[in-house]
Design a protein that fits this description.
The structure is a homotetramer.
Chain A: H1 4-18, H2 38-57, H3 68-72, H4 96-115, H5 120-149, E1 173-176, E2 179-183, E3 199-203, E4 206-209, H6 215-223, H7 235-243, E5 252-255, E6 258-263, E7 266-269, H8 281-291, E8 294-295, H9 298-304, E9 314-320, E10 346-350, E11 366-368, E12 377-378, E13 381-383
Parallel strand pairs in A: 9-12
Antiparallel strand pairs in A: 1-4, 2-3, 4-13, 5-6, 6-7, 8-13, 9-10, 10-11
């Protein structure tokens, strides 16, 4: 892990880079309880290093601010009381500048920590902290997109990067024979606890599409009455689209001249050849039913992952987020990272166009509730 | 299927038998949207036979009452509009007597149908109807218990049957070696579509308890601060017990002299040796975590089922309710029976002391949302 | 008060008379938290006599049932805990027959009480109890109508009485000159505490219509876009009709061939000449604004009451329900009868076609929240 | 109105003065739907001048930004669609600086308008606009206090002004004889439409306290179990304090060493001699009941207003907010200013320590819902 410090600094800088085109006021936006403001992400990821590493392991470390633990703890019950999640956008003080100072302060002390030849335990926690920060980089973008989307002027976050997703996909299907396969992570590279332990599963033979569903294909589903045909929907999905009065993916708007969607570059006409984004598990399942096909399980996906191109959308699987055989919850706060969320969520595999570089692998298990759509989610079909 | 008619009649009579100690007013009780009144169960199961069998297959059959389809359809979108679920308790008219006439009318026509040498398709639907009625018999009892429980006088449903659950359980663990096992139903006896198709799974070696958790063991968990230790709980379980202010299973009351619970025989002192009942998946998971053990998956349960005694509690498994490989949704209304509920629910295996006789098998998949407790649910532990 | 006993018995019998065409199941209907089942009304009015009179004043009186105080207290905090209001429809036990026995038992003891030459205090409470019972007779009918209305078969309560309201009204306006007038009750006949004390008010000159608004006039308002013109509505009224998606009075249904409404005689075509019913204060205010007129204050109404014909609809006034000068809350439970409801409610004056005979007078102050419509409410216009 | 321009400019500058100690992020705080961010107040008051005056009356006026009407309309249905109220805090763009430019732009054009010898109608609207802006200055402070209060660091808005309220009050009672009095505004100075028309009322003789209730008196009420004695409370008040679990005024915290409260100068120990603040109508009524006294009506208050010192708290009256005799709603958007809010609100009289200078008069009618507490509200007692 000799090269960890430059990686650490690179990842840390990427977080502030992501915010460099934001104005001060943008940093506090929180449009719903399930999103967090950019400033909070910047502070919380910093607190994680302070709380998990500097406080226990750097001798005579002095907290930057005693009150920050309360403000910037996310959900760690083991680490004390915390601000109500829905109030994160109300923290106009400490100001942005003070959070940026906090980041510098913590980074300097992490550098100092490296000078003392840190133990393997510390190094492992440091890697965990960088992975954690990368997760929040993705959240920062998807959260900000959601908050911006409620501003009637449809602000552009920036023009510098293509978040729309690739257009020229390979066609056809990958065939996988039945048999026993190994699932889960093994080896010395970083992985989360929920990827363990590696274990065997038996899979039936199946086929999985080489391409993700495009906007054009999904428009066909809409125009074929997809949102009004109950036979295609899970019961809770059907209730949900009717309660919420939904007829399209998140951020889509029907105008006279066709479909538009809000993107991080502002409101844009939808490109029918581009990859579909911002759909819920329920919509993914309904679309698959309409096609007479299905979603892959997370095990099928992992087995096929070397033969498909993935990376512009998180792909809903038809697997519930549950522990692998032999999964153990770690003692203490780190143990709250993953295991306690194993109910009512579905696994997503792959990565998306807003996933940070280097933060993806074939055993990675992302998870969200089936009705959520503000992540960069898409559909890959499978069949027997 | 030569003996189907007597079976049909026996099952149909069992439904009215279950109500024979109820007064007329009890028949309309609906204490929450998720329960239904006894009268509605009696009518809905009858409508199922009328709608699925008599209407399409008995020549010149005349509906008993044109309005009943609207009143007594449960959730079949394919069969038209229906009464809002929460309003089932408001149907004081048609009166109970008219529902009993409806039952007789439909039974007579089913008898008539048998005289015409019914096709295999009809016979299969008849079996489905009887299985459906047995499911509602169990619901009738659990629903009624729930509705009664909100009457401060704690009415006794009847004394005639022991619903408390067995007390003398075998102790110890069953060991199952790793390997490939067959899961799901195959053969000519009745099974639901969600038990299909039979398929192979690979299981790690595991052990499963021969006994269900008792009230006494659970009281120990309570007294060891189980409901106040967040480390034991799934995140949504922890939120749920705190929002609802829960500190014990459903129907339990702490009095000075100890724990009491409401039962179908009225309020009773809790027997510490009897089998625990009316707990949610969240509580089952927390209890298992406290024990340092876990719940079995539904596959483990099925493989071990021949070597454990089951039948007084529905046993929560740690498997989400999802389709088996190759599961196909049937065309039409029958297809709405199971598949559309495959989200956010956990599988329960076994049977309970209120399950109708003959309505259980080792491949049977029951399912409920993880916070629900009004079914006769319990815990069996497993470990590697 | 020598004739009080026959009056008592007549009023008591009227309650059971009102239920004589109901089936046993109808007696438990409670379609919303704000309505109560007929059985509960029958029991609660009886409990009032038991709790307020027999228990404190009849020597060696033995309660009919110790548990009834909990079940049949409505809102008297001074009289102990009580059943949650929304659960009144769940009391299938005690059965209807036992409630009828309770009524007889209490009536017999009231008769016995009369034999002992009761004190003035007791006689006053007895009168209060009969007035209270008459209020519940009206509620019984309006509550039952509401509960029946959710049964898709639109049950007919009975044909024996005309609840539709008179048709041939006098036209024109009554003119009242400005000046000081006396408002409120004075004298020896019964009145509620909220009618006291009599006091002077100064009124500007005004005019008040001799007739109530008819269905035909209101249909004109609807057809003139009344429910879609925000300028006519109070802000909270506008929010309410939009949240609830309302376009007509309660119980109205638009069919191809015109307007129908649910009545206690079943679903009927609306008679345009009959008096409008089941509208909220918000609708009354919007209609008046559309006419360029207004509602009278309760003081104007009382002053004009001798010159207008009233009695088929409770008439919304533009007065909030607040204490008269010198109003005193009585000590103890009786003090909870009226005073504690003096917030967010509007006064209605007059009486309706379901008000019990003898239960109306010009100083009577009825009151409901401005969005409620299940009472038999109507509109009388006023102007300066 | 020759001096209107300097008054206009002074009032406009006061708004930005109020924000001069805020950081950029503070300007977007919106902690609840019923409060608005400072930036929104700054923009909305400016839009009012643009929309009501510049657009219709300044020839060739060019809107500063076409999109602002949607963003900064508050509740004027006549003026088109608008941003959802709860989303006001999400408008990070336009930035604060652009709003300040907007203010300058509009101010410059108002100056230009003055050069053209504006009509009386325009001058009247200008006065209305300044009065409107002063109302928002008070809201800006009370809203900001509310939003700040949810920041665990209890930010200090500023030290420069005493918002705690006066301490040395006169004691004793003012006696007013019965008789006919004139109520409401008449004359050429500015007043709102809801103060019209002036009219006669008859009042009983009464007494009104010369002082407002102090913190010390209210602590006595709390310590005498005031929040737990249902006999003191209106029914909806009792439900409200129990649902919300309230035991003290807004912003009060009980510490070991006594009562503290959050103020615009940060968290402070409560001064028992200072005037009580931030109580609801329900609490005011309960306190008065506990004292055996009452709140004055708004008419009593107005009649006595010359003989009492008022101005540090808005004083709850026992009058509902309803139209005066002859009240007329103005045509168009200005007509939405007051009249449409005349339901479910109570009148407050006087002014508070955050009311802008020059924005109070004895006929002024403020109004809020009875459970709201974030205004600077207090209690003055009355009796007969």
């Amino acid at each position: 892990m000799s090269d960890l410090l430059p990686i650490y600094l690179k990842i840390r800088n990427h977080s502030t880079d992501l915010c460099k085109e934001l104005n001060t006021e943008d940093h506090n936006l929180q449009a719903a309880e399930f999103v967090s403001p950019p400033k909070w992400h910047l502070a919380h990821t910093t607190w994680f290093f302070e709380e998990m590493i500097l406080k226990p392991f750097l001798k005579s470390y002095k907290l930057f601010d005693e009150g920050f633990a309360f403000l910037f703890n996310s959900y760690y019950n083991n680490l004390g009381d915390r601000l109500l999640r829905r109030n994160r956008g109300l923290i106009s003080r400490p100001e942005l500048n003070r959070i940026l100072s906090y980041r510098n302060y913590v980074d300097q002390h992490i550098v100092q920590l490296f000078e003392d030849n840190p133990s393997d335990q510390v190094l492992e926690l440091l890697v965990l902290g960088t992975q954690h920060e990368q997760q929040h980089q993705e959240l920062l973008l998807s959260d900000l997109k959601y908050s911006f989307s409620l501003n009637p002027s449809y602000p552009a976050y920036g023009q510098q990067r293509n978040y729309i997703g690739s257009k020229n996909q390979e066609s056809g299907w990958v065939k996988i024979p039945d048999g026993i396969y190994k699932i889960g992570h093994k080896g010395s590279e970083f992985s989360f606890d929920n990827e363990h332990k590696q274990h065997k599963v038996y899979l039936q033979a199946f086929e999985i599409s080489k391409s993700l569903v495009t906007n054009g294909e999904y428009i066909e589903f809409i125009e074929n009455n997809g949102y009004n045909n109950f036979n295609l929907w899970l019961d809770e999905g059907w209730a949900w689209i009717n309660d919420e009065n939904l007829q399209s993916p998140l951020y889509w708007y029907k105008k006279k001249e066709g479909w538009w969607h809000y993107t991080l570059s502002g409101l844009q006409k939808i490109d029918v050849d581009a990859v579909l984004c911002h759909i819920s598990y329920y919509e993914a399942m309904a679309f698959a039913a309409w096609k007479g096909q299905r979603l892959a399980t997370e095990f099928e996906w992992e087995v096929a992952s070397d033969e498909i191109k993935w990376g512009s959308r998180w792909e809903w699987t038809n697997s519930a987020y549950l522990p692998y055989p032999g999964f153990q919850i770690t003692e203490g706060a780190v143990g709250e990272y993953n295991g306690k969320f194993m109910s009512n969520q579905m696994v997503l595999r792959g990565a998306s166009s807003v996933t940070s570089e280097g933060h993806s692998r074939k055993t990675y298990r992302n998870f969200f509730h089936p009705h959520l759509r503000w992540q960069f989610t898409g559909i890959r079909l499978a069949k027997y």
